């Protein structure tokens, strides 16, 4: 600003807050159902449909997907992010189930594509649903081995694309996996399939409920993912992570978790001006549900405030387990 703005009492900032229509006119950000991505869990028939820490989230069988998509579509949700729940007996040290044509995730992707060809179909990509140790990759010498993991992930990504995924979302935090995935997709006729990289994914306590819904908590046996997920103390490092993934060909990036990492969302968006997704993770969902159930917080107001704050921080889109409730509430107003 070249001239100083007027001061009180000439300026009265409250004037713009007097009426709802005026508050709407001057609002700097907006939130709509079109901003939301709904994570969708698919399970085998004999697995339990729900878990305690994520009330309201269902693990769907292949047969139930139709009903799930119809419900989502009716509320204006147009994109889903798919996660498979793999039974313990199909897990092993190297996650071999992940490369089987018959694996649940490929059937689910094909089915969703057939049922809802107009919907956006994102596939989460990592090995933790498949490994008997619960880690996102292959273990060598006591740690997750980067390059052999990346090789497998690229193969799984290609199979996901072949099954109908529009966007692959690698959540494993290996170095170089975006390049490996991009390369394999491009050399197999899938140059239009996108990569939305979990680029700044922190090693967070807030993934607990997700690991319960994936049944992977027990497999991790108190282990942690600190050797590949980011240290919550670091911010500048997120910029390097995002830069690398963009350089390797990512079309969009995810910052995860959401609320505690709004500064990272902001820095990423300011620095790169690329499509940025916020992941409102399972622990955030669980905290809100618990507070709502006790009556300590108003779920609708708290949720909508959380989501609009992601937008204000710089997120273009938001992945949230509350997508259906949010869409319903947004459509009411
Ligand atoms: C694993 C994966 C995780 C989430 C998405 N993909 C958890 C983890 O890293 O252990 C977290 C989702 C959430 O908590 O909502 N590849």
Gist?
The protein has 12 helices and 11 strands.
Q: If helices are DSSP runs of H or I spanning 4 or more residues, what is the number of helices?
A: 12
Largest sheet: 8 strands, parallel, barrel
Amount of helix: 25-40%
What's the total number of strands?
11
Distance between the termini: 35 Å
CATH class: Alpha Beta
CATH topology: TIM Barrel
Q: Which CATH architecture would you pick?
A: Alpha-Beta Barrel
Radius of gyration: 21 Å
CATH superfamily: Aldolase class I
Runs with pLDDT <50, length 5+? Answer: none
The general outline is: globular
Tally of discrete structural domains: 1
Percent in strands: 15-25%
Structure, described:
The chain has 333 residues and is α/β, with parallel strands linked by helices. It has one domain: Alpha-Beta Barrel (TIM Barrel). The protein is 39% helix and 15% strand. It has 12 helices and 11 strands. It has helices at 20-26, 65-74, 104-115, 146-163, 177-186, 208-213, 217-220, 236-248, 262-272, 282-294, 299-313, 323-332, and strands at 36-42, 59-60, 79-84, 120-125, 139-140, 143-144, 167-170, 194-201, 252-256, 276-280, 317-320. The strands form 2 sheets. An 8-stranded parallel β-barrel has the order 1-3-4-7-8-9-10-11, surrounded by 8 helices. It has a two-stranded antiparallel ribbon with strand order 5-6. Helix 3 links the parallel strand 3 and strand 4. The longest helix is centred in the middle third of the chain and has 18 residues, at 146-163. The protein is globular and about 70 Å long. The two termini are 35 Å apart. The mean pLDDT is 97.
């Amino acid at each position: 600003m070249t001239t100083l703005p007027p001061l009180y009492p000439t300026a009265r900032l409250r004037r713009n807050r007097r009426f709802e229509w005026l508050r709407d006119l001057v609002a700097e950000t907006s939130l709509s159902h079109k901003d939301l991505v709904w994570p969708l869990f698919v399970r085998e028939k004999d697995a339990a449909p729900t878990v305690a820490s994520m009330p309201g989230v269902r693990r769907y069988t292949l047969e139930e997907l139709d009903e799930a998509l119809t419900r989502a579509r009716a509320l204006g949700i147009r994109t889903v992010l798919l996660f498979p729940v793999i039974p313990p007996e199909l897990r092993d040290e190297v996650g071999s189930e992940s490369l089987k044509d018959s694996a649940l995730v490929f059937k689910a992707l094909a089915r969703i594509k057939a049922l809802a060809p107009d919907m956006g179909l994102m596939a989460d990509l990592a090995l933790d649903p498949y490994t008997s140790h619960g880690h996102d990759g292959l273990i060598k010498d006591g740690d997750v081995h980067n390059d052999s993991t990346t090789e497998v992930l690229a193969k799984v990504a290609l199979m996901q694309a072949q099954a109908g995924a529009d966007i692959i979302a690698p959540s494993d935090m290996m170095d170089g996996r975006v390049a490996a995935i991009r390369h394999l997709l491009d050399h197999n006729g899938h140059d239009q399939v996108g990569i939305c990289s979990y680029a700044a994914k922190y090693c967070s306590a807030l993934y607990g409920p997700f690991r319960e819904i994936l049944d992977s908590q027990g497999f991790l046996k108190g282990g942690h993912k600190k050797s590949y997920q980011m240290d919550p103390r670091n911010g500048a490092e997120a910029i390097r992570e995002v830069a690398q993934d963009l350089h390797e060909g990512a079309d969009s990036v995810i910052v995860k978790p959401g609320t505690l990492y709004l500064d990272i969302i902001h820095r990423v968006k300011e620095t790169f001006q690329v499509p940025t997704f916020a992941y409102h993770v399972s622990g955030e969902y669980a905290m809100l549900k618990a507070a709502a159930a006790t009556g300590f917080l108003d779920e609708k107001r708290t949720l909508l405030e959380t989501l609009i704050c992601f937008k204000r921080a710089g997120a273009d889109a938001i992945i949230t387990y509350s997508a259906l409730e949010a869409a319903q509430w947004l459509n009411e107003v």
